[in-house]
Every structure is written in C-alpha cells, then in structure tokens.
Amino acid sequence: MKQIHFPKLLMSLGMLFSVACTSATEQYDASSSAAPTLVFENVTIDPVAVYIDDGASRRVVGHVEPRKRARLRIPGSAKLSGATNLRVVAVPLGTARNTDGTPDPYDAVSSEFEPAQYLVSMLWSLSGRTLVSMALPRGWR
To answer: Residue 133 CB: number of other CB atoms within 10 A?
Structure first.
C-alpha cells in the first residue's frame, strides 16, 4: 500500500485551485464587460428558460429559478447588435414540447418584437402567463 503525503497533496491542490480560479476570473471579466446582459425576474413558482428570438431562430440566454432575478449574458451579441426584430421568450418548466424537443411556441410566453437595445435596457418580469418589461432602476445598467 502506498503512503500519501498530505502536506504535498494539500499544496498541489491549493496551487491547482488558485490557477483555476485566476483563469476563470480573467475569462469572466474579459467577456462580461463587453457582452450585453438581460435582466430577468421570475415571479412564478416554476424554473424558466429564457430565449432571445429573432423570428428565424432562438438562442438560449439562461435559466432563472422561481422567485429569483438574474442578469443573463446574451450570446452572439455581435450578430444581434443591428437586429431590429428581437423578442424575449420565457419557457416555464413543464411547457409542451414539439417532436424535435423545442418548446411549443403557443405554450411559451413571448414579448413583442423590439429593437435589440430595448431588450437590454429593460427589466423583464414573468408573472403567471404575463411577461412585462419596465425601465431598469437607476444603477442597474
């Protein structure tokens, strides 16, 4: 049976942890400052998947737990910057699915199509089957 030297093991784990944390923080800081975000509040009792829809495709933005608020980073924001017809789509857990696994658009809760800059400058709130947007409070942008 091989003997384990705990001081060496702890030192190795500490070094690995510090390198991993440093690289993860650098990656997050670099991408988060440049990427626009969407503030979404889920007032329902179900977890919700949030999408951005441009009429031709949907991109998953993130998931928001019940009775929580989250700032979600918008993926592929460079492609969306000039887009004029975007909408927020909220899909609660348990929503009917199509045969290909995508949420049924008639069961999802969607906003109206709007310019991209309006999506990121508003607080989006889902309550029951109603999705509303309001101006972000001062200091949230």
So the answer is: 17
pLDDT at 82: 62
Are residues 86 and 53 in contact, defined by beta-carbon separation less than 8 angstroms? yes
53-71, pLDDT tens digit by residue? 888 888 889 999 999 999 9
Q: What is the CATH number of domain 35-135?
A: 2.60.40
Cα 94 off chain centre by: 19
Domain residue spans of the chain:
1-34, 35-135
Side chain identity, residue 33: S
Tokens of 1: 């049976």
Q: Is 7 helix (H, G, I), strand (E, B) or coil?
A: helix
Q: HSE of 47 in the Cβ direction (CA atoms, 13 Å)?
A: 5
